[in-house]
Amino acid sequence: MVNTAESMVGKTCIVTGANAGIGRAITVGLSIMGATVVMVCRDRDRGETAVNEIKEESGNDALYLFIADLSSQTSIRQFASEFKTEFTTLDVLINNAGVIPPKRTETADGLETQFAVNYLAGFLLTNLLLDTLKASAPSRIINISSNSHTSATINFDDLQSTQSYNPQHVYPQTKLGNILFTYELARRLDGTQVTANCLHPGVVATRLLNDYNGASPLVSLMNKFLYGTPENAARTPLYLASSPEIEGVTGKYFEKRRMVKSSRLSYDLTVADQLWQVSKNLTA
Predict the structure, then answer these.
(1) What is the pTM of this model?
(2) pLDDT digits (tens, 9 = 90+) for 171-189
(3) Three-state secondary structure readout of the chain
(4) Structural domain containing residue 63
(5) Does a structural domain hold residue 58?
């Protein structure tokens, strides 16, 4: 069960990848706490099914479905525009969506798909919504990362993996990117009362894990017994979204609701600034 001690009544939250896995569990938790939740989903049918189920589970009807393909910058921009048309405040933004294609694919923007969805989509969406987040301050940005980032570096010479693509190498790089982005964002938001934090949710038996491991149906079934549930994984992002204990805390990395150190490279200011500039150019 999620921790429902904190009330989120009157708070507006966005969760990307909200219809399945950790995103769905986060949405359920926020709904139980009374938040208004904007669910960003790629598939309308799956999204509508999730909305109806979560309304019943939580007893909260304040769920709103927006369809957006986070691999498309045009779609991300359209969502941000539509959100601002319908909502005037944003208290919590949770960048959760992720993919792990087994083979290298490119988005409509000509970018490698993992890099585009797992990292760059959050960078773009956050920046598009910063004016609303600042106007709603104190507000919170939460980026879902992974402890797999500890094995990664940022390969600026091949960010799009055109020379070599291994999903188990690209995924940690995108998760390191999430952390570098979070820390740099926190520095740039100093004094605004908008905080930015990131986290490792734990290893969870979701479709994403199966994609990461290249799991067979049998291994996928075994994963459900070996690894944590989405509900357990949602505890840390829900804590970061709702707890008064971390009001004003920013630029930090969390595991199991505790502040911990991320990799040494994640604190490199030169790498963070370079990644920011590259990301800015790729989303211009």
Answers:
(1) 0.92
(2) 999 999 999 999 999 999 9
(3) CCCCCCCCCCCEEEEECCCCHHHHHHHHHHHHCCCEEEEEECCHHHHHHHHHHHHHHHCCCCEEEEECCCCCHHHHHHHHHHHHHHCCCCCEEEECCCCCCCCCCECCCCCEHHHHHHHHHHHHHHHHHHHHHHHCCCEEEEEECCHHHHHCCCCHHHCCCCCCCCHHHHHHHHHHHHHHHHHHHHHHCCCCCEEEEEEECCCECCHHHHHHHCCCHHHHHHHHHHCECHHHHCHHHHHHHHCHHHCCCCCCEEECCEEECCCHHHHCHHHHHHHHHHHHHHCC
(4) 12-203+233-282
(5) yes
